[in-house]
Amino acid sequence: WLVLHHGFSVDVSAGADPIRGSTHSPDGNSGELLTLIENRDGESCAVGGRSRWTQAEAANGIQGTLKDWLTCAGIDLDANPQLRDDSGVVSTSLYFRTMGLQLHLELNYVNQNYINQHTTASGPVVCILKVKAEVHHTFVSDLYDQLYIPGPNGTIMVETLQVAHGVSIRTTVTGVYRTWSLRSTVQAILELFVLFQLPAFMVRFLALYCLGSISNIYRRARSNKFNIYENLHCGI
Fold this sequence. Notes:
Layout: E1 2-4, E2 7-10, E3 19-22, E4 33-38, E5 52-53, E6 62-64, H1 66-72, E7 101-110, E8 114-115, E9 120-121, E10 125-134, E11 143-151, E12 154-162, E13 167-176, H2 182-195, H3 198-209, H4 213-222, H5 228-231
Parallel strand pairs: 4-10, 7-13
Antiparallel strand pairs: 1-6, 2-3, 4-5, 7-10, 8-9, 11-12
Helix pairs in contact: 3-4
């Protein structure tokens, strides 16, 4: 069996406590954590009998047999690993069982509604768990033993070397957590003010119309009568 616990931690702002959540010990600030299991193509696949694991169902971990996880990755241990693995090395093994492979678990956390061509889900936090397989030789630690057996002509030393292949596991974590920020909102508003030259317009409006008699002086200084005959006499 393969049991998976996972979680996330988000630093939303300086000085505030980070938002955390996990299948093992959920944080009260994060709410429900929903886990969706998908294959490489984004289609739902079942591990332990289900492809959607709620917070309560995953409290003891997302549990499934190794066969369930490999089926999601599209791997059969008794299948032929083809001629070459991902590193370009020619495989001499007839089966994955005698070659090994790497199980790649991609965890992507989002706190928005998750929609793709196969699945739709909503909740405070959704984890999309994609199960992939990377084909290459994997080895576990060699087992070396020496045995001394009594014989008719003395002690006989017997050496045994066991080379085993297995399924290694690699995880990668990505995610997008969106939240409202007062600082970012104020900064965006100020940038709009500067972009549309609103400060200069507001200062000009106040000076021309909101300062009483002083505004009258500013308006007279800003606007002059233009006499075409006097100013363009030579051109007429």
